[in-house]
Design goal:
The protein is of the alpha/beta class. The chain has 42 helices and 63 strands. Helix 7 crosses helix 8 and helix 15 packs across helix 16. The N terminus is likely disordered.
Length: about 1500
């Protein structure tokens, strides 16, 4: 084998030089020497053999020499003698392949991909460079999306030149779409990502018809140029007949009895310890006598409740370590003699062994209740407290029997088991782990067992008293068939070499062959590879005694390189080329084929060099040109004697394949397994397949067994295997073999990164197609940069050689992948961990953009339909126009009270006069005690004092704006009415947070400035804060307007209370920051203010005798109205609970509701969430304290968003125990243009819930579906429409009215609409559009306000208060928040809900887009090392449920996603923080 792509002539290099080279290679692979040192020493060693050319580096010069023959020096060694690998890499070492990969990579320029960023704490080894993206954007952008065309030129990306800047440096700034300046580090990475994705994807999307609703996934059309099989149909290949001749014993047990009595001294099995010493030799006599003792004990000495514990045919587990073949053999034959069925399994070392649960499932389904083991092994098993062997997860309860001699009873002289007759039924059960990770038991009958022994004896030419060395696991597969069963039939002597000895001394098996003059040896290609690495200094070994070296994993196409290299080195030590005999086997069919030496009639061995591209289409094309992507396979010999073999198609009916087509090998023989124990369905499919010809005629009169091996029949009727069904990954229409992909990855400088060559490749199904996942163990010393570089090279190599994209490439720390029993990686367990998010990688690269080519076609907007045809369309469809209204308000003129109550200042004075001592407000603190109250007259007097102070101290005139910066309380309410009393316009502002001035104070300053406030009213404490040193650091404190504190204002009356000239005069300004980060103030006139109070009064039936509890912030929207306005208007008593107080006493609000027997209560989502999370486990305690919520008629969540059903439902469920009525909880809906559109109130039907199709919503359509149907989304009605409010659904673009159940913008008309935005620059267009919109057709007279929310109306079967049918309004989401992706409209909350469900450690999630990339920010509630597990899960779930490819996954700490006081996520703030690199993320993954 050529070394490092550097072919050397084989002949002239003496053995010692070759060994020194191997040693050197080993040092490099273990990291004991640098690359430079390696090249230096290597050049020195080779100097004598390669003529030097002046001035050229010898290591380079070697590269340019003509390649020698393919059998050159030893395969590149990978391990030191003392610790050989447990890896799978040895099977994949091929020079031709390594050269091919290097050549493919050379085609790529060094591409730059955006490297993921990690926080320092997550890095094990990090370099400063990790923090800066690859610097210059003007080098060729990375191209992972196109086919491998060499780009000799490249376009310059159209961006400002961005140099990467480490944290804290100022660099050139980019601006986002909104003109937000951003730090260039993140932007440059995203820009790189965009450049990477600019190139078109490989498979062009086919045209296809998109049905109105269904989004069809792209079905990959077959490529017209793909290779198709052209050969004739194959036929059944018949093996030679089993020879008759010698009288055969009727059963294996009869043979054992014969040898045990006639030849008791002849050796049967020699066991070795880890130093290679023979510890015990079992003779045939001993085997016979001990098996008899065991059989007798099992049948006669074990009882339960005076019944024998076991009866013939029962299954018994055999739990023996790999180092104890003697006891295993005794146990196995003892069970056979007792007519019990042995089920050999691995020793469970811990309670959490990989795959142990599935083994338990197998034992349970086999009804195993007894396990046999040795004394030593039993002592080593995990124990429970009682000292008994622990019960393993998923295992049935087992009794353990130790079978060492002293525990067994000697049978009486007259006791003889049946040995002479041929038995029927099952002989033993061999376990097999399927691709999905489930463990099944293959049953092998007595007849099959006998037939297998005969066929192997004939095929391998075994003769009496031969010696066989066995390196394989003797519990199953070839190790069991040759080393335990067939050996006994022929009275052979087996030398069993334990795995631990091979790890300590890889040469041990060769030494034993030499020592025992063994005629046959049973190994895997791994063992040959290991011995190559360790053969130095072993001059005296000779392999001349061997006539057969059986390579048990010959079915792995990559075993050929180990065979070649082994022959190459050991030919000089007496190994004859014809001795190497690869064989193919499968658990279902046992041995399928084996190569035989010429003296046993075998044809000469053959090799085939096949095109990988052809193989991916299942077609055999011999690749004569030295192309890059070829697979070299060797034959696995001829069909077994007495067997018939055919090759059938993989999918569907088992039709025979054509001669040049790869199919599944099927065997019909008396020597195959008979069933999967207890699984009738798949047994029929696998063990009773009926291959048919193209015409549908069965090819044989007996059924065949499917082997799970993929291959074809070559010249001389030799069988060739190119892969296994278990390792098959089907992407689109092409098939790839996991082993081939591993080989390609290993050919990319594995020494530097991959720990011991440990790589797992498997596929996961995402969006109806297999996606390839590659997981490798990273060497502890590999740096972040290097690993990322390696990952990108692996992607390129696999793309180049296999023409397939890798969906996810993950690196995990060394030694963390689950191990299979004898080394190797437990693939199905690795896959399980990947899907469950418990793999804990330290590096991840996802490439969904390249791989996922079957997304639905981006939606083209249909041409707009004209207004008239829309109306007609709705009429024809029988749809009514979607409009609805609340109850009619009685005309103002008729109502004396409404006229009297036009101005709130008048109302307060009237109440102070008529009911002076009626309490209006009670304010509670965290302890639940009342800290301040206000009766009508107290509030009136306090308002007068404020008005006097404003006029005298503040020297304000009528119409001036005043900012009220108060904590929630009665002071705020008094200040508000004080402003009305003197004709000023109040603006309520949330005070800055003392612990967080930096972010909260600028907002206060901004509102004060934008609202043009002439004065700030506040308390002493806040005044100090506004003028403090800390405040000066955040804002310019010199520019505050007059600040008045109202704590100690003198008791003064105002001469006269101001009365507005008309109800349309401005009463107050309502400022709030929207979730999209826009600060908007709206103007509320006196008429709108009193109309709002009147509507709420009617809907909630509020009277002076009522008490309501409010747990809301009093600064804007409905919260402000309920807190400051409604009590004064309706005269009811409000119990005020500031939400901040809940932080120190979560149960405050609910206790207050219970204590004051409030029928109506209001809260926000954040309050509801705090109660649900904080009181979940405390309902019992609250009940003890007497909290009773049965008084509540309606509990309303004040919101400006789609109702959060999950939260309201869990709240209802949780507090049902405290008497909360099931139907009490509902939501309200308001927005900037109208703060209260819907409110459940006390009368009217309960809120209804409908389920809509999420896919239809993306197309702005509403399709109602059944609960639980796929893609269904529950939507709850947002309360009842308030009296006097009219709502219509309008098309967002044409502004025409829409039909029932159409998604459009909600427009509202009502006397309490705000009169407009109060903006500094007076953006009149914005104002006119939002507050005075008219429909483009239909009712074009009514003036509407546009809410900016999407929703739909639906007429229900329910009756409303006025007796008509009830119209329900469903809010879907804010129009500003929606994401336009692939021509469709997505609501962030839907994507976020999917992501939160993806893994238990996702605490919160927010999504936004930037330059068409979807960015998902995830809060991790778990350990930082688990962060990277989320990358793949997030990408998968968004693809599966929303057909979107995630561009960037950002993992942050809990609490990073900003949330406003209403509990809404502020995604734009988050976006700006991300782009300005202020989030301090744990990990940022840029998906390719």
């Amino acid at each position: 084998m050529a070394d490092r792509g550097c072919p050397l002539e084989a002949a002239p290099l003496p053995a010692e030089v070759r060994e020194s080279l191997a040693e050197l290679e080993l040092e490099l692979s273990e990291g004991d020497i640098t690359q430079k040192g390696y090249e230096k020493k290597r050049a020195k060693l080779l100097a004598r053999y390669i003529p030097l050319i002046q001035g050229i580096d010898p290591s380079l010069q070697a590269e340019n020499r003509i390649p020698g023959p393919s059998q050159t020096t030893a395969a590149a060694p990978k391990q030191q003698k003392s610790r050989p690998t447990t890896s799978r890499d040895e099977r994949f070492r091929s020079d031709v392949h390594t050269e091919a990969v290097q050549a493919a990579l050379a085609k790529y320029k060094e591409r730059k991909m955006p490297m993921p960023s990690k926080r320092r704490s997550v890095l094990v080894h990090s370099s400063v460079e990790t923090y800066t993206p690859p610097a210059d954007l003007h080098s060729a952008p990375p191209d992972v999306t196109t086919g491998l065309v060499e780009h000799s030129y490249f376009e310059r990306p159209q961006v400002a030149s961005v140099r990467s800047v480490p944290r804290g440096c100022s660099g050139s700034m980019l601006e986002t779409a909104d003109g937000v300046p951003v730090n260039s580090r993140v932007s440059s990475k995203i820009q790189q990502l965009l450049n990477t994705l600019k190139r078109p994807k490989r498979p062009p999307l086919k045209e296809f018809f998109v049905d109105d609703f269904e989004e069809l996934l792209e079905v990959q059309q077959p490529d017209p140029n793909q290779p198709k099989p052209e050969g004739s149909e194959t036929s059944v290949l018949r093996g030679e007949p089993l020879t008759a001749g010698v009288p055969r014993p009727p059963s294996l047990l009869a043979t054992l009895q014969r040898w045990g009595t006639a030849q008791p001294k002849s050796p049967c099995l020699t066991a070795l310890d880890t130093t290679g010493k023979a510890t015990y030799t079992l003779t045939y006599g001993k085997l016979w006598s001990r098996s008899l003792k065991l059989a007798y004990t099992l049948l006669n000495k074990l009882t339960s409740k005076n019944e024998p514990l076991l009866k013939p045919g029962d299954r018994v587990a055999l739990v023996f370590p790999n180092s104890d073949p003697v006891m295993f053999m005794v146990a196995f034959y003892g069970c056979l003699l007792a007519e019990l069925v042995p089920v050999p399994i691995e020793v469970p070392l811990t309670r959490k062994d990989a795959g142990s649960q599935q083994v338990g499932f197998l034992l349970g389904s086999c009804g195993v209740s007894l396990a046999l083991t040795t004394d030593a092994c039993q002592k080593g098993l995990p124990k429970a407290q009682t000292g008994e062997v622990a019960t393993f997860k998923g295992w049935p309860p087992l009794s353990w029997l130790v079978i060492d001699g002293k525990h067994l009873a000697r049978p009486p002289k007259d006791w003889h088991p049946l040995t002479q007759d041929t038995r029927t039924g099952t002989a033993y059960i061999e376990y097999k782990t399927s691709k999905e990770g489930s463990t099944v038991g293959v049953t092998v009958s007595h007849a099959s067992l006998l037939a297998q022994c005969r066929a192997l004896t004939q095929a391998c030419g075994y003769s009496e008293a031969e010696t066989l060395t066995n390196v394989l696991d003797f519990k199953r597969d070839a190790g069991l068939w040759h080393g335990v069963l067939t050996s006994v039939m022929n009275r052979m002597h087996v030398v069993s070499i334990p795995y631990a000895l091979m790890k300590a001394n890889p040469l041990s098996w060769i030494q034993k062959v030499c020592f025992y003059k063994a005629r046959a040896a049973l190994v895997k290609s791994r063992d040959m590879h290991w011995s190559l690495l360790a053969q130095r200094g072993q001059r005296d070994v000779s392999l001349s005694s061997l006539r057969m070296l059986i390579v048990a994993d010959g079915a792995n196409p990559w075993s050929i390189s180990s065979c070649d290299a082994f022959l190459n080195v050991f030919q000089s030590r007496g190994l004859r080329p014809e001795v190497i005999c690869p064989c193919a086997s499968s658990p279902e069919a046992l041995t399928v084929a084996i190569r035989r030496p010429p003296d046993l009639g075998g044809p000469p061995p053959r090799k085939a060099v096949l095109s990988m591209n052809g193989l991916s289409y299942g077609v055999i094309r011999v690749d004569t040109e030295e192309k890059l992507s070829v697979l070299t396979v060797q034959d696995v010999g001829q069909v077994m004697p007495g067997a018939n073999v055919c090759v059938v198609k993989l999918e569907g009916t088992p039709y025979l394949c054509k001669t040049d087509e790869v199919g599944e090998i099927c065997v019909n023989s008396s020597a195959t397994g008979t069933a999967y124990y207890g699984l009738l369905g798949i047994t029929k499919n696998v063990f009773e397949a009926v291959p048919v010809t193209a015409g549908g005629a069965p090819v044989f009169d007996r059924p065949f067994t499917r082997t799970g091996l993929l291959g074809f029949i070559g010249p001389d009727n030799l069988v060739f295997i190119v892969g296994k069904l278990d390792g098959l990954m089907v992407t689109g229409v092409r098939r790839h073999n996991a082993d081939d992909v591993v080989a390609t990855a290993l050919a990319v400088e594995p020494m530097k990164f991959v720990y011991r060559g440990r790589i797992a490749v498997f596929s996961v199904t995402v969006l109806h197609d297999d996606r390839i996942v590659l997981v490798a163990e990273q060497r502890p010393d590999a740096s972040e940069e290097d690993s990322f570089q390696w990952m990108s090279r692996v992607l390129q190599a696999i793309d180049s050689i296999h023409q397939v994209g890798v969906y996810c490439l993950a690196l995990v720390p060394a030694n963390t992948l689950p191990k299979a029993p004898l080394g190797g990686i437990h693939i199905s367990e690795t896959k399980q961990r990947f899907l469950e998010g418990t793999l804990h990688p330290c590096n991840v690269l996802m490439c969904p953009h390249t791989c996922v080519t079957n997304l639905p076609k981006p939606r083209q907007k249909p041409p707009e339909v004209g207004p008239a045809s829309m109306i007609v369309g709705n009429l024809v469809a029988g749809k009514r126009i979607a409009q609805a209204s609340g109850r009619e308000l009685a005309h103002l003129e008729d109502s004396d009270q409404a006229r009297k109550f036009l101005f709130l200042a008048d109302v307060l004075q009237w109440r102070a006069h008529t009911t002076p001592d009626h309490p209006l407000f009670l304010l509670l603190n965290a302890k639940g005690t009342v800290t301040s109250t206000a009766t009508c007259v107290q509030l009136h007097k306090r308002a007068e004092r404020v008005a006097a102070a404003l006029m005298e101290k503040g020297r304000l005139s009528v119409g001036d704006h005043v900012a009220l910066v108060y904590p929630p309380g009665v002071d705020l309410i008094a200040a508000f009415y004080g402003c009305l009393y003197c004709g000023c316009v109040p603006v309520t502002v949330r005070p800055p947070h003392p612990q967080n001035l930096g972010t909260t104070l600028p907002t206060v300053k901004m509102i004060v400035e934008v609202s043009k406030s002439a004065c700030v009213l506040t308390t002493q404490a806040v005044t100090r804060l506004l003028r403090s040193k800390e405040a000066a650091a955040a804002v310019d404190i010199r520019t505050w307007p007059t600040i008045l504190d109202t704590d100690d204002i003198p008791k003064k009356k105002v001469a006269s209370i101001f009365r507005p000239p008309s109800p349309d005069v401005l009463a107050y300004l309502d400022f709030s920051v929207s979730t999209t980060g826009i600060l908007a103030g709206v103007k509320m006139s006196h008429a709108a203010t009193s109309a709002l109070c009147r509507s709420i009064k009617l809907q909630c039936e509020l009277y002076p005798s009522r008490q309501i509890a409010i747990c809301l912030d009093p600064y804007c929207g409905l919260g402000f109205a309920l807190w400051c306005l409604c009590s004064v208007y309706s005269g009811h008593q409000s119990v005020l609970v500031p939400p901040l107080e809940l932080e120190s006493n979560v149960s405050l609000w609910l206790s207050a509701v219970s204590q004051y027997k409030a029928r109506v209560t209001f809260c926000s989502y954040s309050v509801m969430e705090m109660c649900t999370k904080g009181l979940g486990a405390q309902t019992g305690v609250l009940r003890m304290k007497g909290v009773n919520l049965s008084c509540v008629r309606t509990c309303m969540v004040v919101a400006e968003e789609r109702p959060r059903i999950a939260l309201t439902q869990s709240f209802s469920k949780l507090f049902k125990d405290l008497g909360l009525p099931a139907r009490a909880v509902s939501t309200t809906f308001g927005c900037r243009v109208n703060v209260a559109i819907c409110l459940q109130g006390t009368a009217g039907p309960d809120p209804t819930t409908v389920y809509v199709d999420m896919r239809a919503l993306r197309h702005d359509r509403v399709r109602l579906v059944e609960r639980g149907s796929p893609h269904s989304l529950p939507l709850m009605e947002s309360g009842k429409i308030l009296p006097g409010v009219k709502v219509i659904i309008a098309h967002t673009e044409t502004k025409g009215p829409l039909g029932d159940s159409h998604l459009g913008e909600i427009w509202v008309s009502s006397p309490h609409n705000a009169t407009g935005y109060y903006t500094v620059y007076g953006e009149e267009a914005l104002h006119a559009d939002h507050f005075s919109a008219r429909l483009s057709f239909g009712d074009t007279q009514t003036i509407w306000a546009r809410t900016g929310y999407l929703g739909f109306l639906r007429r229900t079967e329910l009756t409303d208060a006025s007796g008509g049918r009830h119209d329900a309004l469903y809010v879907v989401g804010s129009l500003d928040e929606t994401l336009e992706l692939r021509g469709m409209r997505y609501h962030p909350i839907d994507i976020e809900t999917s992501v939160i469900r993806a893994h238990r450690s996702v605490a919160e999630c927010a999504v936004f887009t930037w330059t068409n990339l979807l960015v998902v920010v995830v809060e991790l509630d778990g350990l930082e090392q688990d962060a990277l597990d989320l990358v793949a899960l997030v990408t998968n779930v968004v693809l599966e449920e929303h057909y979107l490819v995630v561009g960037v996954v950002v993992i942050v700490d809990p609490g990073v996603i900003p949330i406003n006081s209403r509990g809404e996520k502020q995604r734009m703030h988050l976006r700006d923080g991300f782009l300005a690199d202020q989030l301090d993320p744990i990990y940022v993954a840029y998906n390719m």
